[in-house]
Amino acid sequence: MTFADVLDWCRKNSADVRGVYRGKDISISHKDSDLPSALPSIGEIFHWDVEMPELNHYVSSSDFERIVTGKLTVNGFKSTLRGNE
């Protein structure tokens, strides 16, 4: 997964995400025309905060990569959340 993949996924899903890493963060929105400058390595991201119509939750880097690459659906992820009935 690349940051370009993340931006493309955000655009397709009307999502805004914030990647958190070592005391910093980066934000990518479905409204962005370009990626932010000075991006860290994507492997440095600890977790992603995802905000979209059907989800407002933090997601581990590995789960987010699975969502972006189509290996895990948003509904599939939501079914793993504690308290989900």
Quaternary structure classification: single chain
Into how many domains do the coordinates divide?
Answer: 1
| Structural class computed from helices and strand pairing | alpha+beta
The fraction of residues assigned to DSSP E strands is 25-35%
Most strands sheet: 4 strands, antiparallel
Strand order of the largest sheet: 2-1-3-4
Strand element count = 4
Radius of gyration: 12 Å
Unreliable runs, pLDDT <50, ≥5 residues? none
> Average pLDDT across residues?
94
Task: Return the string of H and E elements.
Answer: HEEEEHH
Helix content estimate:
25-40%
Distance from N terminus to C terminus (CA atoms, Å) equals 31 Å
Number of helices: 3
Write down the overall geometry.
Answer: globular
Short description:
With 85 residues, this protein is α+β, with helices and mostly antiparallel strands.
Explain the layout of strands and helices.
Blueprint: H1 3-13, E1 16-21, E2 24-29, E3 47-52, E4 55-60, H2 61-68, H3 74-78
Antiparallel strand pairs: 1-2, 1-3, 3-4
Key phrases:
85 residues; globular; 4 strands; 4-stranded antiparallel sheet; alpha+beta; 3 helices
